[in-house]
Amino acid sequence: MFSKAEAQKMKKDFWTAFAEAYPRKWLLYDTKIKDLSLKFYVDNKKAQVMIDIDSRDDAKRYDYFEKLESLKAILLEEYLPDAVFEKDFYLETGKAVSRVWVELPGISLYNMASWAATFRFFNITMDAFERFFYEYEDIIRG
User: Nearest Cα to 39, choosing from 24, 54, 29?
Assistant: First the structure.
């Protein structure tokens, strides 16, 4: 087990190594759509790449999610066949977001031996999400 300081250093080292391995500017929060962002996530069990819709207004959140759902067949067939759609995903805080994600199980941020596989997964999956987003941005934006 790591101390809190060791865990923080490991996280920093992980993200620094990822940025060095795949040096590019990712879209992430710069979608130009308020409350819609693309995200990376990793913990001690899994890695995920996701589109999050994080609006306090449920009607607005559902509207964006329905637009993504209308493109579900395209996303699954042409970009990410393992994508999962969840209209109400509850964060640890209890807040509900809408989320589309792809997961790589069985890896750990705290196991440097799994970093290369995680970096490849992040690169391939986020690239697919970004290409999908740019191609269908007008539909998503509405």
Answer: 29
pLDDT of 62:
97
Phi, psi for residue 55 in degrees, rounded to 5: -100, 140
Confidence at residue 2, expressed as pLDDT on a 0 to 100 scale? 76
| Per-residue CA distances from 21 to 15, 38, 135 (Å) | 10, 19, 26
Cα–Cα distance for residue pair 76/122, rounded to 1 Å? 17
Task: Give the predicted TM-score (pTM) of the model.
Answer: 0.94
**Residue 107: burial class (beta carbons within 10 Å; 0-12, 13-18, 19+):** buried
Question: Tens digit of pLDDT for each residue in 4-20?
Answer: 899 899 999 999 999 99
Report d(CA 95, CA 132) in Å as an integer.
26
Task: Give the burial class of 23: count Cβ atoms within 10 A of its Cβ; 0-12 exposed, 13-18 middle, 19 or more buried.
Answer: exposed
Q: State the average pLDDT for the chain.
A: 96
Contact present, 132 and 80 (Cβ < 8 Å): yes
Distance CA 18, CA 45 (A): 18
